[in-house]
Model the fold of this input.
Amino acid sequence: MNTGVSETIKKYCIVPVVVFNSVDEVRPKLRAMCDGGLPVAEITFRTDCAAEAIKIAVEEFPEMLIGAGTVINGEQAQAAFDAGAKFIVSPGFSEEVARFCAENGLPYFGGCVTPTEIMTAIANGCRVIKFFPCSNYGGIKTMKALSAAFPSVTFLPTGGISADNLAEYLAWDKITAVGGSWMMKGTPDEIKEKCKAAVEAAKAVRG
Ligand code: 3PG
Done:
């Protein structure tokens, strides 16, 4: 795994999940995130402008760690890589995407919620597991049960995480980072304030 990326993710321990409906949103929202002290973005392939948004982000916000999210096949992984994404996230686990990432030196956080899926992730060289949708699949209780069988993995839970409950997750050392979209709602000023609050909440637990 690219140590620079994993160190940065561990340092901030929050991965904002970002959906851009238009490239016009990219600059003001990313600026707000930087001003709020959270220069990390997982830009999702849920919208057609994802690759272009990643390209703008990488070129114009070199201080940020930019990755791609909701990548569900090799074609999207290629587009994300070509646009300059530094890590790839999927809602489920894709062996095709895992292979692409391994070949191109990109950290891959594939989604797993069952022992079988985690075994597939391990067989593909992945050690940080996205656990999504976290609250629907039993949250920290389920991750702790899975961790007993898979002590070598750590988790990136997303889905239902917010400023109000992130401390519960970050208090456990098997959580590499928490992810979510809660801080991305509203105007750029609101995003900045929510990012600040998220960073403060994380610092209170992780220092
Ligand atoms: C994801 O893709 O990780 C989730 O959509 C984030 O979930 P949230 O919107 O509940 O934060």
Q: What stands out?
A: Residues 25 and 77 are 22 Å apart (CA to CA). The radius of gyration is 16 Å. The longest helix spans residues 188-206. The pocket of 3-phosphoglyceric acid is lined by residues 17, 69-70, 91, 132, 158-161, 179-182 (CB under 6 Å).
